[in-house]
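Ops channel
N.P.: pipeline sanity check, posting one input/output pair.
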C-alpha cells in the first residue's frame, strides 16, 4: 500500500522528459505505472533568440569593420548550430512523449510541462486512456480546464491537479481545529504569500513575472494557492471576490501584488495578500510569511511556512509552525507525522485509480475562475465579482 515515486528511477532526457515508475517497498508495482512528462524548450529557445538578436545587432552596424563582420559570422554560426541541436532534441522529446501515450503498460501521466501546454498534453493523454495529474495551474483558461474535466468524466478517468498544500500536515491540523470549533466562532482569516521576486532581470523575464496569460503574476502564481487552501480548511467554496492591485513599483509585466477580500458560500469572509515586491528580510522572514491567521471568538490560529513546498520534515530549510493563541497564552501544535506533500498527492491519485473510484479536478477549474475574477475585480476598481 505504500506507493511512492522512487527518485532513483527517474530517467532524465536533457531535463526535458522524465520517466518514472511508481514502486511499492522499493519494487516495481506491476499494477500501476506513471510517466512524468516535463517538456519545456522555452529556456533553450530564449537563448537562441538572444543569439540571433546579437547577430542582428552586429550585422546592422553602419560600415562594419572586418573584425565585426567575423564576429557576426561567428555568433550566427553558433546560433544556427544551437537551433539545429534544439530542433533535433525537441523531435526526440516528442517521439518519447508519443511513445509514453502509446505504451499500454503506463496507466497514468504526470504533466509537469510549461503552463501553456498543460491542457493539450493532458487531453491527449486522456484520449489515450491515461489517468492524469497536472501541475498547477490545471490549464491557462477556464474553457480549457472545463474541456479537461468533462473529458475525464466522460472517459471515467482520474484527473488531479497539483494542489499539494492540502496534504501539508499543519494545514490538515488547522482544518481539524477549525472544524472541531476549537477557535469558537470563526469570523475572519487572512492568507498571505508575499516575497521578493522579479527585481532581478532574469527573474523579471520568467513566465511568473512576464506572462499573465500563462497564470503568471502574484494572483495566478500564489493567490491561487491561498484560494484552494482556504476552501480546504473551511470546507466551503469562495463565491465572491473583490481585489485591488498593489502600487506599481516593479519593472515587471505582471501586477506587483494584490489585496483580495473573499466571501464563502457558508458566509465566512477573509482576505488574501500576495506580492512579488516584498523583500521580507531574508530566507526566514520570507518563509515565515507564507502562512495564515484564522480568527475565532475563543482564539487565533497562526501558520508560519505551511503555504509553501515544505512538508515539515527535519531536513527542510525552515521549521514550519502552527500556533494556537488564547487568553491563556500561546501553544504550539505538532502533527504526529509529516508525509511528503507531493508523494501524498501521487498516492491519493494512484489509490483512486487502483480502487476504480475516479476523482475529478473540478477544484482546478474553480481555481482558475477565482483568479480570473480577481483580475476582473481589480480592473474594475475593486468591484465585487461573483464566482458560480
Amino acid at each position: 500500500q505504500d506507493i511512492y515515486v522512487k527518485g532513483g528511477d527517474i530517467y532524465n532526457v536533457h531535463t526535458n522528459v522524465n520517466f518514472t515508475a511508481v514502486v511499492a517497498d522499493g519494487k516495481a508495482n506491476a499494477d500501476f505505472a506513471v510517466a512524468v512528462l516535463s517538456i519545456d524548450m522555452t529556456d533553450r529557445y530564449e537563448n537562441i533568440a538572444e543569439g540571433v538578436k546579437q547577430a542582428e545587432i552586429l550585422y546592422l552596424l553602419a560600415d562594419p569593420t572586418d573584425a565585426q563582420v567575423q564576429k557576426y559570422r561567428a555568433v550566427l554560426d553558433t546560433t544556427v548550430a544551437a537551433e539545429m541541436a534544439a530542433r533535433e532534441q525537441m523531435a526526440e522529446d516528442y517521439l518519447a512523449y508519443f511513445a509514453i501515450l502509446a505504451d499500454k503498460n503506463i496507466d497514468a501521466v504526470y504533466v509537469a510541462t510549461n503552463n501553456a501546454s498543460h491542457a493539450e498534453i493532458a487531453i491527449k493523454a486522456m484520449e489515450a486512456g491515461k489517468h492524469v495529474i497536472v501541475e498547477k495551474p490545471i490549464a491557462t483558461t477556464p474553457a480549457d480546464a472545463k474541456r479537461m474535466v468533462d473529458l475525464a468524466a466522460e472517459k471515467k478517468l482520474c484527473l488531479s491537479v497539483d494542489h499539494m498544500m492540502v496534504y501539508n500536515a499543519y494545514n490538515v491540523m488547522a482544518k481539524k481545529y477549525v472544524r472541531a470549533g476549537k477557535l469558537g466562532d470563526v469570523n475572519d482569516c487572512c492568507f498571505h504569500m508575499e516575497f521578493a521576486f522579479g527585481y532581478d532581470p532574469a527573474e523579471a523575464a520568467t513566465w511568473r513575472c512576464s506572462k499573465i496569460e500563462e497564470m503568471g503574476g502574484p494572483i495566478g502564481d500564489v493567490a491561487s494557492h491561498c484560494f484552494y487552501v482556504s476552501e480546504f480548511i473551511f470546507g466551503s467554496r469562495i463565491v465572491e471576490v473583490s481585489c485591488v492591485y498593489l502600487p506599481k513599483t516593479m519593472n515587471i509585466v505582471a501586477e506587483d501584488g494584490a489585496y483580495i477580500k473573499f466571501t464563502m458560500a457558508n458566509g465566512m469572509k477573509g482576505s488574501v495578500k500576495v506580492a512579488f515586491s516584498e523583500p521580507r528580510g531574508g530566507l526566514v522572514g520570507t518563509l515565515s510569511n507564507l502562512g495564515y491567521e484564522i480568527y475565532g471568538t475563543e482564539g487565533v490560529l497562526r501558520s508560519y511556512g505551511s503555504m509553501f513546498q515544505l512538508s515539515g520534515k527535519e531536513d527542510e530549510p525552515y521549521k514550519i509552525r502552527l500556533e494556537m493563541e488564547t487568553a491563556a497564552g500561546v501553544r504550539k501544535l505538532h502533527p504526529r507525522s509529516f508525509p511528503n506533500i507531493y508523494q501524498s498527492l501521487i498516492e491519493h491519485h494512484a489509490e483512486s485509480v487502483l480502487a476504480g473510484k475516479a476523482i475529478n479536478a473540478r477544484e482546478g477549474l474553480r481555481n482558475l475562475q477565482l483568479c480570473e475574477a480577481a483580475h476582473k475585480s481589480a480592473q474594475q476598481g475593486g468591484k465585487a465579482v461573483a464566482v458560480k
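N.P.: looks fine end to end. The chain has eleven helices and 18 strands.
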